[in-house]
Every structure is written in structure tokens, then in C-alpha cells.
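Q: For a teaching session next week I want to show students how multiple molecules come together into a single three-dimensional assembly. I've collected the sequence lines for a complex. Could you give me the predicted C-alpha cells for the whole thing so I can convert them for display?
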Amino acid sequence: MEKDILEVLLTEQQIQHRVRELGEILSAEYAGKDPVIVGVLKGVVVFYADMIRQIHVPCQMDFMWLSSYSGTNTTGQMQVKRDVSADIEGRHVLILEDIYDTGTSLDFTYKHLLAKKPASLKICTLLDKPERRKPGITLQPDYVGFTIPNAFVVGYGLDFNEHYRNLPYVGILKPEAYNG
Ligand code: 5GP
Ligand code: MG
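A: Of course. Below is the structure for the complete assembly, covering every listed component.
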């Protein structure tokens, strides 16, 4: 696995440090609000598990699973494959995401959850790639772990063809790895 990584962009230590910082901010923000923390599967799983343990206030866990109608991310037609199980009307909702790239999936998720009339709806993404944002997407994440350059990254939950999710760091994949 490691041999396919061109460069480690964020080390395990850097990520854990930032997750603790975000945890302090989110603990203060959600004190007394019993938020529903919605993770967007599957890429968020590793970040979610670390993040939730740094939020030191009562909260509820929930998950959504999206799929696109066609095979690629770029066509952007999204569908809910698995919806949240909680009734979030009147609740404080925090979306956790792995990466904000073109913005298509988070924009879709945000609108989908907003329609359920939560008391508040905020977004925390581990990674943000602002250079990739699709024109017309104006949604800004409320909390960002790291802003990264326009490169395809894997690890810490992020995959290429379902592999590399279990790397404890975020790295840039070697171009050779795309071609097998
Ligand atoms: P969007 O383009 O809608 O913002 O992001 C859609 C999805 O594409 C993300 O949730 C993530 O699964 C995937 N994605 C975007 N950029 C990257 C990347 O650099 N690496 C990996 N592994 N997945 C990415
Ligand atoms: Mg993905």
C-alpha cells in the first residue's frame, strides 16, 4: 500500500491534533443541544470515529449513504441510498464529511437534510479542495480540518477503488497506481 503513495500530505499526528482542536470547538458549539451528528458513508467512517470521541457533550449518531445515478462523481446526479434514521425536525444537526471537492455531494446532502426542517444545520469536513469547486456551488463548510491542493488523496477513510481507506494518514496517490 505504502509503495503507491507519492507523498504524505497529512500525517497521523497532524490529523489527530486537528481532530482534537475541532473537538473543542464543536463541544462548545453543541453543549446542551443534543445534536444529531450525520456521517456521509463510507469515506467519513474513520474521521467520524475519531471526531465523535472528541465531542464531549451528549449527541446522537446517524448516517447517510449516497449514490450517483451514473458511475462517475462528475455527472453529479445524486440519490439517497440510505437515509438518516432519526427524525431530525427541530434538532440541531451537524454533517460530517471526508472531503469537500466539487461540492456536488455535500450540496445535495445539505439540501436533503434542510428539507427535514432541523433547528440548525452545519457542516464539518475534514478536507476542503476549494480549487475544485463547481461553478454555482456557494455552500461553505462551517468547520474545515485542512484545506488541501488539487490532488487526488487517499487514506484515513478515503479510497481509490475501495482500497487505501485503512491508511492512518492522508497521502497523494502515485499516478502509476491508477493504472494498476
Ligand atoms: P464532491 O465532488 O461531490 O465534492 O465529492 C464527492 C466524493 O468524491 C467525496 O465524498 C469523495 O468520496 C470523493 N472524492 C473527492 N475528492 C477525492 C479525493 O481526492 N480522493 C478520494 N479518495 N476521494 C475523493
Ligand atoms: Mg468516495
